[in-house]
């Protein structure tokens, strides 16, 4: 059984693909902040999926799942500002960083 991304958003709706190898901590942070589409100050799974889509992840839905598993310290299903640092650290570990 493989993991498949079901709802494929057309690339043009996700914005330009970013050069992931050049992202700094601040850029990563601003990408995640911009991905807070409904501006409620927290990142839902859907918003995380968008963020990882922008970062060029092969399977954004899977990344969003992993990130929530690692960064959602209070287990409310979303990443808030306090958890954002952990999210960025995790994104770094995945290779979304300056090399
Ligand atoms: Ca949000
Ligand atoms: Ca949380």
UniProtKB/TrEMBL annotation:
InterPro entries: EF_Hand_1_Ca_BS, EF_hand_dom. It holds the Pfam family EF-hand_5. Residues 23-58, 67-94 form the EF-hand domain. One of its GO terms (molecular function) is calcium ion binding. This is EF-hand domain-containing protein. It comes from Populus tomentosa.
């Amino acid at each position: 059984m493989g993991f498949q991304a079901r709802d494929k958003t057309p690339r043009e709706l996700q914005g330009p693909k970013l050069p992931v190898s050049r992202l700094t901590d601040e850029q990563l942070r601003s990408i995640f902040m911009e991905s807070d589409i409904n501006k409620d100050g927290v990142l839902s799974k859907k918003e995380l999926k968008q963020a990882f889509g922008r970062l060029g992840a092969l399977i954004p839905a899977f990344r969003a799942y992993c990130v929530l598993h690692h960064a959602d310290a209070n287990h409310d299903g979303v990443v808030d500002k306090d958890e954002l640092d952990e999210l960025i650290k995790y994104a770094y570990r995945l290779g979304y960083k300056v090399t």
